[in-house]
Amino acid sequence: MTDITLTTTSAPKTGPFAILLAASRHPLLSHAKVRLALLILIPILVLTILAPVLPIQKPLETNLRAMMQFPSIEHVFGTDKMGRDIFSRTLAGVQISLLVGFSVASIALTFGMVLGTLAGFYGGWLDRAIMTVVDIFLAFPSLLLAIGLVSVMGTGIVPVIFAISLADVPRFIRLQRSQVLSLRSRAFIDAARTVDASQYWLMTRHIVPNTIAPMLVAASIAAANAILVEASLSFLGLGIMPPQPSLGNIVRDGQTYLEQAWWISTLPGVVILLIAIGLHFLSDGVRELLDPRSH
Amino acid sequence: MIGNIRKLLAATLTLLASTMLVLTISSPALAQGKTLTVRFYDDPAGFDPANIFRIENENIAFNIFSGLTTYDGETGEIVPDLAVSWETTDNKTWTFKLREGVTFHKDYGDFTAADVIYSFNRIKDPATASPYASELAGIVSMEAPDPYTLIIELDAPNGNFLHTVANYHQGQIVSQKAIEEAGDQVRWQPIGTGPYYLESIDVSSQIVLKRHEDYYKGPAPIETIVFNIIKDEATATIALRNGEVDLVMRSNKEENLEVLEAEGFTMNSVKDYAVVIGVLNPEFEPFANPLVRKAMAHAVDYASITQAISPSLTQPHHSMLLPWMDVYTDDVPKYEYDPEKAKALLVEAGYPDGFTFKNLGTSAQGVTELQQFQIDFLSQVGINMEMELVDTPTFNQRRNAGEFDMASRLLPAVNPDMILFSYLHPDNMVPNGLNGARYDNPEVTNLLEAARAEPDKEKAFEMYKQVQQIVAEDAVYLATYSNNVFWPGKPEVTGVHINYLAQVNFYDVNIAE
Amino acid sequence: MAEYTAKKLVQMLITVLGVITLVFFTLRLIPGDAASAMAGDTLSGEALQALREQMGLDEPLVNQYLGFLRDLVTVDLGETITTRIPIAELLLRALPITLSIALATIVLSILISIPLGTLAAFMAHKGRNWLDNGLTGAAMIIDLMPSFWMALVLLLIFSLGLGWFPASGQLNWSDPWALVLRLALPVIVLSLSQVATLARITRTAVLEVLNEDYVRTARSMGWSELRVLFRHALKNAALPIATVVGLSFGNLLGGTVIVEFIFTIPGVGNLLISGINSRDYQLVQTLIVFYALLFVVINFATDLIYKTLDPRVQF
């Protein structure tokens, strides 16, 4: 990250560099927490994208002559019982984890925004119907809901994403609804109403734009949580199944070797932690920027 | 402030203590005598011989019940149990002399021939819905001229009938009175004539066995056996290392075994308990060609793989039968790891560029470590193995129906005749039986039928030997590796002999002073 | 208040009925049934069908659903499908264990987090932020660590390494000290993440109160710090803390599933996992409905307490 910043500042003021430079001056990036978050997340992301072209063993490739090796230059995170490269598997796992996190956040955001706005704005029977269903889903502790759903739908990435999203969507609907409710009654909306604005205009121009930022903050937390829930599901044997690596199942498979080869499960565990911390800082920073009161 | 905290603390502790007091349940008082604590690895599912499933439950039943015969803990041979002797001239009419002075647990009286007749008829009765009914289907009649003589007439000669009546599933003898009293709770109220009886059970945490003081061989050395349910392997290992349990029933992870061995625990084990075979479906064209099947066998280095994954728990194996079986022969064609030969065989078979096939598996298990290695090795000779993962019930259904290119099977039966018949006889062809290779070789069929009817052991052995040679030459099933079973325990726990059904007779177990 | 309670009660009943229906029909979507799960791969064809009929799995779905509703209303929970054990008996044995763990976790985490959060707030108020920052950081890391991982590390250190706590064994209710040792690790694992959340809530609530005008006034009148703390700060912080405790109860129930599995504690969570593995619908549906009921009732109680303490609240 430091390297990238250095390159950016010394770069010519045209082309993509100029855009990067401009972007780096954006107030968002001047916030300490956001910077820290990007400092953590960007290198992980870059490594994950570059993984296929890096000079490392493929994630599924086994090697009978290099089993349970301590981290070295050749195997940065060491190797596991089958001689697979943990670093390479971790990067592949990050890819899956990010896919899970991003998908869950997008699904929760989309359904939460649409249904929450409808419920909050129109009220009446629609509100009651939506909220009754929401209450039913909220009656399950979220990990239990996910466990139940995955046991019904089977293991694999799609069921995992679906199960975690289903636990999050009701929470997003609730959040969006309460935001819409409070915005609807605010003074400036009343003002808009007096100039005879249409309901649709009110909703799309005044209410929804004001709800987006807090929803994005919630979404980044949901993404971090999704990564952790996937890990817990994998631990119970209900998540993403080997040999397909996910951060959860790498940690789980490695934990039986904690005494003999701590690195197998610890290093990918640290990566989970880093991603989660990065996402939290990102959401914290964005929230503080948007909400001056918290300063 | 400190005073306040103290008050709060006191209040909390009082609250906790009173909660516990309210919830107090009297624990079973342990009487004097030796107690052995054993790790049990899953929820118990009941111990009714007619409806018993899974090895861990069978192991409890093995100690509660007796059969006419049983398996010797060390040699695996058939030895007398409730029958003291038997005779047959044609493998069709069997006369058993029964043991006198055997009593059932608690107050369920003396054992006689009537109990055997009742037990076998109960299994055969469709109302019992026992999955093992077919095992006893060959019994035409049972007669007891006196209380300690039993004559069983079969519909066809069966040289392996002594396996059928061993202390296992359908062979376990129950008491009519106990069964009728228990109603639909038979599985939780087993009454037998074995060395231990079930004292109490909490299905989510423990099973307690007490010794049967009137056991016909005399009371067992250990008075109480407590089985603690510990499902997580890591926790079970820690529990043994902490001394919380004396013996671990089936430790299944190489890494745990290594730790325990290094710390001086006794690694009780049985080698070659079961063999894993690959079933190749000849309806998938390449597999109809014996050359291709041989190429598959030559292409994978099972010796290196088993060494890598789990040298303690597995070793490569080349037969459907295991070395300790009485009809086993080592004199068969073997397929050593030889990728060049595999490639040559593929060229000869008309697949110079290899082919792609699907290996059926369960999504619950995923792609096993062995399968990952198989994929690697096969790809080096140009064969592309893909995994087809389905949910477990679908897997079982498709495997039974024979709808796959390749699937694997674990062959744990102790009765070699049963294995060969099930997997090689055309009557047992899928979907009616286990013959997934759809093998139908009249020569083998004739040999199998003749061997089963042959009363002369030597002659029967020659025929079984020929069968094994032909089947290996045809590479009908892909032999891969065999499994071992481990019950690590404290050094002072002695006599843990695991038989080839992976079971321990606790009558032999003792704790050294 | 009565009207409010009645309205909430009706809402709760609708939710519960929805939960029951949802659980029942979703579970029927699972491929494979209890019969095939029980038999493993040992049975096929007719033998399996016989077992299925014996277990009552061939009844029409609607009949099974109505039966389930009737049983719940009459509190007749029935028997497990695979092993014919009364579910009420299993639940009665497992519930005290899970509730003890949950209760002990809540008590322990309150005992730790309130002093910690208050101290952090006081120091932050005085401009010394290190405790506050450290707390936030630690809370975040603990919050983000998978609980199964933490459980195993604690087992290795405190059970195997130091030998302080057993890793397995029966829960002996007649020996309270043994019981405390046996449940200590699972309670600690669960408490860690509760402490993280509760301490932060306490800190925020106390800090807010400390900045209120009336507290400044009280201080300027020469009240001692402790008096200010107890008379105002903690009293006002109690409401949000109580709410968070109530709401986190659901997460705690989820968390017990994992610690019960690792520490082999025969609680409701372990029962649930067993039920899922053996495809015992009767058991799983009863347990999930039970969890949901418990959760809904606790939320209801939290709502009412909140409303009583602070009548301004509108829902």
Notes on the protein architecture:
The complex is a heterotrimer of chains A (295), B (513) and C (315). Chain A has 295 residues and is mainly α. Chain A has twelve helices and no strands. Residues 1-12 of chain A have low confidence and may be disordered. Chain B has 16 helices and 19 strands. Chain C has two domains: 16-73, no CATH class; 94-309, MetI-like fold. Chains in contact: A-B, A-C, B-C. Chain A binds chain B through residues 60-62, 64, 67, 81-83, 154-156, 237, 241-244, 255-257, 259-260, and chain B through 233-234, 253-256, 258-259, 304-305, 308-309, 363-364, 366-367, 369, 372-373, 376, 389, 391.
Could you give a short description of this structure?
The complex is a heterotrimer of chains A (295), B (513) and C (315). Chain B is α+β, with helices and mostly antiparallel strands.
Distance between the termini of chain B: 56 Å
Give the CATH superfamily of the domain at 96-295 in chain A: MetI-like
Mean pLDDT of chain A: 80
Roughly what fraction of the amino acids of chain A lie in strands? under 5%
Major sheet of chain B: size, sense and barrel closure?
5 strands, mixed
Biggest chain pair contact, residues each?
Answer: B-C, 61 and 62 residues
Cross-sheet strand order for the largest sheet of chain B: 8-9-10-1-11
Unreliable parts of chain A: 1-12
